[in-house]
Amino acid sequence: GLTANAFTSVLADPPMVLICVNREASAHPMIARSSMFCVNILSVEQGSIAKVFADHARRADRFAELETHPAATGAPVIDGCLAYVDCRLAEEHTAGTHTVFIGEVVDCGVKSGRPLGYLNADYRDFGIEIQ
Fold first, then answer.
1. In what helix (H) or strand (E) does residue 103 lie, and over which residues does it extend?
2. Which of 20, 24, 28, 113 is deepest in the core (most CB within 10 A)?
C-alpha cells in the first residue's frame, strides 16, 4: 500500500481512473504484477492511516493494524474508508520517475463523511461533506 500523490478520473464510459506511482515505491511491482489496484479514499478522521502509508520505513507492516476486506479484484479495502475504487489494470505509461497506472473500475463504494485532503505538506479538512 501507499499514499498516492495523484489520483483522478479518466473516463466515464467505461469508468476509468489513474494513479501515479513512483517506481521506487514498494507497491509499484505489486500493482504491475497483479494487474489490479484499489484506491481507498480516507475520511478526515483517518489521517493517521495516510501517514502510515506515506512512511517509507513501514513498508512491511502498513496493513498490520488495520481491518480490511477484499474488493472484487481481491485488493484490500480499508474498513471504514469513505470510499473505494477497485480497478483492473488497463494501461501503464512511464512518466519520469513514476508510472501512470490506468485502471478500469470494476467495483466501488461510498459512504457519508468528509474526505481527507492534502495541501502544503499537511493533511486537511476542506469542509466538503460527501452525502
1. strand 98-110
2. 113
